[in-house]
Amino acid sequence: GEDVEQSLFLSVREGDSSVINCTYTDSSSTYLYWYKQEPGAGLQLLTYIFSNMDMKQDQRLTVLLNKKDKHLSLRIADTQTGDSAIYFCAESLTSGTYKYIFGTGTRLKVLA
Amino acid sequence: NAGVMQNPRHLVRRRGQEARLRCSPMKGHSHVYWYRQLPEEGLKFMVYLQKENIIDESGMPKERFSAEFPKEGPSILRIQQVVRGDSAAYFCASSIEKYYGYTFGSGTRLTVV
């Protein structure tokens, strides 16, 4: 089946690291994505990882993929108040139409 | 390149009216996807279209909803006889090929009163 799960809330202090977790079920996924959504706004692609990779780093963002456990995480170093938003992980299915399956989103709140 | 353009940004309709949501894909993109985000939820796939063809509409309600992507002009998502449960943000995304990552528009927020 197709399902992507995330915890709903995360609260961190400014300057700390944030780790947002995601589990997925479709083993044929090719790409896994992290999107950021600010209130009332669209989705901003933050980063993505190909399913044959274990890790990808992009400035303050680090993505870790554990394919065996179907677990994806996004680490934000030195979290800032501007990082407060909802973070969605998504998997892109390899079969058929390559539609994305999104998680329910993790609401990150950064405390000053 | 202006990106994926959706309009209107906000749309208010009374119950029973029709809602028409428009999406202009990025230049050169012939693949369009529509997603719906209900309040406090993630995005759910609705329909995938290529120029003049519906490829996958497995996520779209069977009644009242339709989508098109004509040879010329934007893709249209049409909701007839709207009900309160249709209130949501509707996002469009486009890609150059179906296996390439796609770019999302800013969404249309539909409110049914």
Chain-wise SSE layout:
The complex is a heterodimer of chains A (112) and B (113).
Chain A: E1 4-6, E2 9-13, E3 18-24, E4 31-37, E5 43-50, E6 55-58, E7 61-66, E8 71-76, E9 85-92, E10 100-102, E11 106-111
Parallel strand pairs in A: 2-11
Antiparallel strand pairs in A: 1-3, 3-8, 4-5, 4-9, 6-7, 7-8, 9-10, 9-11
Chain B: E1 5-7, E2 10-13, E3 19-24, E4 31-37, E5 43-50, E6 53-56, E7 65-68, E8 75-79, E9 88-95, E10 103-104, E11 108-112
Parallel strand pairs in B: 2-11
Antiparallel strand pairs in B: 1-3, 3-8, 4-5, 4-9, 5-6, 7-8, 9-10, 9-11
Q: What are its keywords?
A:
heterodimer; A: 112 residues; mainly beta; 5-stranded antiparallel β-sheet; 11 strands; 0% helix; B: 113 residues; 7-stranded mixed β-sheet; 4-stranded antiparallel β-sheet; globular
What would you say this structure looks like, in words?
Chain A is mostly beta strands and 112 residues long. Chain A contains no helices and eleven strands. In chain A, the strands form two sheets. In chain A, strands 2, 4, 5, 9, 10 and 11 form a six-stranded mixed beta sheet that branches. In chain A, strands 1-3-8-7-6 form a five-stranded antiparallel beta sheet, with no helix packed on it. In chain A, strand 9 (85-92) and strand 10 (100-102) form a beta hairpin. The termini of chain A are far apart. The model of chain A has no long low-confidence stretch (mean pLDDT 90). Chain B is mainly β. Chain B is built from no helices and eleven strands. In chain B, the strands form two sheets. In chain B, strands 2, 4, 5, 6, 9, 10 and 11 form a seven-stranded mixed beta sheet that branches. In chain B, a hairpin with a 6-residue loop joins strand 7 (65-68) and strand 8 (75-79). The N and C termini of chain B lie far apart (36 Å).
Task: Write a brief structural summary.
Chain A has 112 residues and is mainly β. Chain A is built from no helices and 11 strands.
Q: Can you give the mean pLDDT of chain B?
A: 92
Helix content of chain A: under 10%
How many strand units of chain B? 11
Radius of gyration of chain B: 13 Å
Tally of alpha and pi helices of chain B: 0
